[in-house]
């Protein structure tokens, strides 16, 4: 196959990247490829699309395509060499293949257990199910439908259900998200592509396979998760919702069972394998394992506030086009940004999990503690843009090297946020936040501010330690020079953004196994991923590790 990159077209040509036909793009490909007379392009597909806004408001679509011709491989190679164009090369895309169990793999005597149905647990379960392991997935939270209802209740009247919220429940933390699928994982194995292809197989929009900033949106992601669950069950897997993995049962130091807590009480499920994919918010599970001396270490993470702007301001600054309708004409989505700087304290200040045309959400999961995050639907069509503005914190800020000090630090911040807003999402104008104004508690228009959850104006600046507040203000002022209006009248901040990643790392060896043989710490909660795609990739790697060591148990139709 031949890949051509850096193909430039005015934005919106051919009806944009998602269009069924691409006459102008095809014409450009022909011109660049200069196929010998009598030869033809058989097929081509877009493999990468991004927008070049450096000459805004003149905007360009930048494409990479993969194509086949009626030339044979040798002729294609010769043609590519003759073109002497650095953007044209011969390409043979890598297809991900799940490894067979190794020769000396032992046969399992019971099903592998997977705690957590977030991206890490789900992809681990999917690949083990495809390979005949009939995994048993334990999910402490509610199944999708009940979970959605519970989250809506929290956002409507503030009733928090510890088993159904933005952190816990079927699909994990990513379910109520923007569904951004970027990941910084340098992956030559094809696992990342496999994750995206699997999402498309279960109903995600195909543009995630080529968009530079792929995203699914929470409205579509929910269906994708349920279809994956159904497929895992069709392949012999099983899901137990409202079933929480608790303490480990070991024999000679190795795993032989897991205590599980259900509505009907506590019981032990025999297990040789437990994939622990419980996410960054399972603090009780972390404490249980820590008490059982499962080796783990403190890990730095980031905290801050979530900032909100009119989406038009961001579109104007990034694309030079303010109006959403004008953007739509060019088949362009609401615009995003990525900002980073250093405060005079030396800490990095950066934007995180930016949600264009999205919502700020009450992402709490524990009574008396309040955390926020961001989400959007696939259309990204709300009037406001939001992102977290955070600083990295570690032992210096936690005040101790105690392994769980970061977790306690998060809890304290969230208690301050809960108190600041009286249990509702605390909001403050950026100006008042900067000037540490004594903002009086007053109901905020959550609709207008695109906040999912009851919100009140409150002194958000009080939630953060002085030094972190200082850094964030310095960062915001710097970002205002990069995006004029970033600290304007229409800018609001909400608190607290505390669940950016896990405050601990559960140690594992090169076989992805903890010092407790049979325990496989996996995903974001274990400290090995940050985001939906990298968590899913870690789930895949863990399934591979299980398959290298164990064969599926004999299929006698029982546990
Ligand atoms: C509101 C929000 C928006 C986000 N937006 C994005 C985004 O746009 N893009 C992105 O890449 N990332 C985003 N993230 C982060 C992303 O969701 C996580 O990085 C990712 O989901 C981590 O996957 P995971 O499978 O490791 O853990 P999680 O998704 O956290 O899943 C863990 C699962 O384990 C369950 N569980 C916990 N304890 C137990 C137990 N003891 N027994 C059984 N089950 C248990 C939980 O209920 C949960 O379902 C967002 C997160 C939130 C909260």
Task: Give a brief rundown of this model.
By secondary structure, the chain is α/β, with parallel strands linked by helices.
Structure, explained:
Helices cover 29% and strands 25% of the residues. The strands form 7 sheets. The chain has an 8-stranded mixed β-sheet with strand order 15-16-19-14-24-20-23-21. The chain has a 5-stranded parallel β-sheet with strand order 8-7-6-12-26, covered by helices on one side. With 559 residues, it is an alpha/beta fold. The chain is globular and about 75 Å long. The two termini are 47 Å apart. Flavin-adenine dinucleotide is lined by residues 115-121, 138-141, 166-169, 172-174, 176-180, 244-245, 277-280, 282, 285, 353, 361, 363, 373-375, 523-525, 529-533, 535. Residues 115-121, 138-141, 166-169, 172-174, 176-180, 244-245, 277-280, 282, 285, 353, 361, 363, 373-375, 523-525, 529-533, 535 line the site of flavin-adenine dinucleotide.
